[in-house]
């Protein structure tokens, strides 16, 4: 046998092994997008159809088969869980176990694997949320739980503020627990000041000397009975109806400063502003509203 014959046989063997491996790996199920067909919320099991069709030997496509009794993975511990309703057509990502899950699915504890099944179609779990859907986050910095359309949201901000909001057409309703412990409903404090609360801040004014720059200031107030603690300034989108009252983002003055700078402020936004003073007996009345359009 010549060296050329040996090389030819070796090449043929390598090609055969490579072909066999390619055919075997084509039958492995690892990870695919899918869509919910039905969902049992009590058992947390779904029937899912893989989103990618199967290819036949003639290179035509057929719909992938339904996979029943797929465990749905939600964030959970032995005592707590987070879950949401799943509807027909909702996107999931399917992940397949390297061994059969029949024994584990019965009791969700240590079990013998099904040794005859490797990456089998029936041994999938589903993780909700995988899909091309885009949403507008309710918060860019905090933890948000929200509806996809943004009409309902719950936000936990890094500074400790907790806010709930519901948008119904042109109306916006909000309830928030501020970082300093104040409870606001639609931007208005639920509690009012006592006998020794400070007076209303006067001469509130605003200017926008440059693009995306807003300067808001007011005259300081005297609080002789109880020391002044802080000022709270809020703004809202002007209009009919106007938007909800909101705290200024990343307000950085000292506690008793009588001005603030908002930058970068949205460009060409018509806003209304106001401020109130606080001491340990509660808030003052709000200052008169100041209207301005940002540059």
Describe the structure.
By secondary structure, the chain is mainly beta. The chain folds into three domains: 27-128, OB fold (Dihydrolipoamide Acetyltransferase, E2P) (Beta Barrel), CATH 2.40.50.230; 135-191; 193-295, Immunoglobulins (Immunoglobulin-like, Sandwich). 10% of the residues lie in helices and 38% in strands. The chain has helices spanning 3-26, 102-107; strands at 31-40, 45-50, 54-55, 61-62, 67-71, 91-96, 124-128, 143-146, 152-156, 162-168, 171-177, 183-185, 188-189, 202-210, 213-219, 228-237, 246-247, 259-262, 270-279, 282-283, 290-293. The strands form five sheets. It has a six-stranded antiparallel beta sheet, with no helix packed on it. A five-stranded antiparallel beta sheet has the order 5-2-1-6-7, with no helix packed on it. The longest helix has 24 residues, at 3-26. It is elongated. The chain starts with a helix and ends with a strand.
């Amino acid at each position: 046998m010549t060296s050329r014959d040996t090389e030819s046989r070796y090449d043929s063997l390598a090609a055969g092994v490579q072909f066999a491996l390619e055919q075997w790996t084509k039958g492995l199920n690892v990870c695919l997008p899918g869509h919910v067909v039905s969902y049992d919320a009590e058992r947390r099991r779904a029937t899912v159809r893989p989103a990618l069709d199967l290819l036949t030997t003639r290179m035509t496509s057929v719909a992938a088969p339904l996979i029943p009794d797929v465990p749905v993975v939600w964030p959970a511990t032995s005592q707590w869980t987070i879950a949401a309703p799943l509807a027909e057509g909702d996107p999931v990502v399917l992940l397949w176990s390297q061994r059969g899950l029949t024994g584990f699915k019965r009791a969700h504890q240590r079990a013998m694997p099904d040794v005859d099944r490797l990456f089998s179609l029936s041994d999938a779990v589903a993780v909700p949320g995988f899909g091309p859907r885009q949403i507008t986050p309710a918060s860019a910095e905090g933890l948000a739980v929200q509806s996809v359309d943004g009409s309902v949201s719950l936000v936990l901000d890094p500074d400790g503020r907790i806010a709930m909001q519901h948008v119904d057409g042109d109306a916006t309703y909000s309830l928030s627990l501020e970082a300093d412990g104040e409870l606001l409903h639609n931007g208005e404090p639920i509690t009012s000041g006592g006998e020794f609360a400070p007076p209303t801040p006067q001469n509130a004014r605003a200017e926008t000397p440059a693009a995306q720059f807003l300067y808001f200031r007011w005259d300081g107030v005297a609080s002789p009975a109880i020391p002044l603690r802080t000022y709270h300034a809020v703004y809202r989108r002007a209009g009919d109806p106007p938007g909800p009252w909101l705290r200024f983002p990343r307000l950085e003055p000292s506690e008793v400063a009588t001005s603030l700078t908002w930058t970068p402020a949205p460009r060409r936004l018509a806003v209304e502003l106001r401020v109130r003073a606080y001491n340990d007996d509660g808030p003052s009345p709000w200052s008169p509203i100041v209207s301005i359009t940002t540059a």
